[in-house]
């Protein structure tokens, strides 16, 4: 949502702005957001014929609430213990 708040974006531009997120996971989340009516996918007219994703009116209406959630969660994120070891089959151990 943060990347889309900047305006229409191609899939690869979204991926570049969200390092560490696999392409297939990003595609699945975009489909979920489309199904929820928060994001729309459209093809720009010729000569570009580029497919972009952008927020709908409903998606833009969510922005203030998401900003408030971010402001609320930031202090908690800063104060959490750092993790040094994580295993795909076990819990992360705090340092």
Automatic annotation (TrEMBL):
Keyword DNA-binding: yes
UniProt keywords, alphabetically: DNA-binding, Transcription, Transcription regulation
Stretches for region Disordered: 74-95
PROSITE patterns per record: HTH_HXLR (PS51118)
Superkingdom, taxonomy of origin: Bacteria
Statement: the UniProt record of this protein carries the keyword Thylakoid: no
Gene3D superfamilies named among the record's database cross-references: Winged helix-like DNA-binding domain superfamily/Winged helix DNA-binding domain (1.10.10.10)
InterPro entries: HTH_HxlR, WH-like_DNA-bd_sf, WH_DNA-bd_sf
Occurrences of domain HTH hxlR-type (ranges): 1-81
Pfam family, one: HxlR
Protein name: HTH hxlR-type domain-containing protein
């Amino acid at each position: 949502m943060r990347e889309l708040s900047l305006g229409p974006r191609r899939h690869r531009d979204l991926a570049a702005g969200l390092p560490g997120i696999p392409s297939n996971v990003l595609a699945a989340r975009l489909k979920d957001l489309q199904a929820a009516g928060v994001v729309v996918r459209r093809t720009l007219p010729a000569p570009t014929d580029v497919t972009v994703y952008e927020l709908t009116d409903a998606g833009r209406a969510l922005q203030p609430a998401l900003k408030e959630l971010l402001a609320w969660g930031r202090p908690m994120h800063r104060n959490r213990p750092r993790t040094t070891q994580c295993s795909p089959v076990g819990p992360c151990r705090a340092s």
